[in-house]
Write a structure and sequence with these properties.
284 residues, Spermidine Synthase, Chain: A, domain 2, 2 domains, Rossmann fold, four-stranded antiparallel β-sheet, alpha/beta
């Protein structure tokens, strides 16, 4: 029997492949094609419309960096809005904070949550937290109706195409600003800086966020299964600075278990390569 491989194109000239034991699930929802595979190297992994979203082996990097960075800067966070996040991983990390009172998760596709609960319980366990409220709704429509309601908004979206496209617009970011309380923070997945089309999306998102928020910075993480392995996150706020307002002693005293994030790495993640800084500065 021939080896089975899952492949996707990072560019027309670069293909990323993972050896697969079996395809565990495949369906076409009202919004996208959802598939789950099992692999010997990365365990189970989820794809949406043929694009890899997470693997059991390296998802902790993404989910820790999109949650603990803003939480270490805004330790008094009580109410969180998580837009996207249908796999439950970001909710799982937020659930480690006893002082968070409410986590609203807004996911457009009910089937993503159901599939993750069935096949990816290590991430979907985040939905078991009683503080989590699931809303199956369009993220832009949901945030339009919120005003000074949240301390933290996390935009855990797919790429800027299909259902996730509206989550990269100036209108969306403007509504996020309106929905944040005083000193509120927004963090978003900010694409990869390396390949041409990804870098184009990164610059477009940064340009829109900078035009809306008083403060906007970008930080990075190494995620092996994402295009080029280098992935960016956006940090925007109504005031708090991701380095000057980092309360490392307070965060460390919480004793939150992590495998990737720590407060030294937090500081280092905001120091970007020259070519990334230059690409971002074009839009500042």
């Amino acid at each position: 029997m021939d080896d089975l491989w899952y492949s996707e194109y990072d560019t027309p000239n670069v293909r990323f492949s993972i050896k697969v034991n079996a395809q565990l699930h495949s369906e076409q929802s009202d919004y996208q094609k959802i598939a789950v595979y099992d692999s010997p190297e990365f365990g189970r992994f989820l794809t949406l419309d043929g694009v890899l979203m997470l693997t059991e082996r390296d998802e902790f990097i993404y989910h820790e960096m999109i949650t603990h960075v803003p939480m270490a800067v805004g330790p008094d966070t009580k109410r969180v809005l998580l837009i996207g996040g249908g796999d439950g991983g970001a909710a799982r990390e937020l659930g480690k904070y006893p002082d968070i009172e409410r986590i609203d998760v807004v996911e457009i596709d009910q089937r993503v949550v159901a599939v993750c609960k069935q096949y990816l319980p290590r991430t979907a366990c985040g939905f078991d937290n009683p503080k989590v409220r699931l809303h199956f709704n369009d993220g832009l429509r949901f945030v339009r109706s919120a005003e000074e309601e949240y301390d933290l908004i996390i935009v855990d979206s797919t790429d800027p195409s299909g259902p996730g496209e509206v989550l990269f617009t100036k209108e969306f970011y403007g509504n996020c600003l309106k929905a944040l309380r005083r000193n509120g923070i927004m963090v978003n997945q900010h694409e990869s800086p390396f390949y041409g089309e990804d870098a184009k999306a990164m610059k477009a998102a940064h340009k829109r966020i900078v035009s809306v928020f008083p403060l906007a910075r970008v930080y990075q993480a190494h995620i092996p299964t994402y295009p080029s392995g280098q992935w960016l996150f956006g940090f925007a706020s109504k005031g708090p600075h991701p380095l000057k307002d980092l309360d490392a002693a307070r965060w460390n005293a919480l004793g939150i278990p992590t495998r990737y994030y720590n407060t030294n790495l937090h500081r280092g993640s905001f120091y970007l390569a020259n070519y990334i800084e230059e690409a971002l500065s074009e839009n500042e």
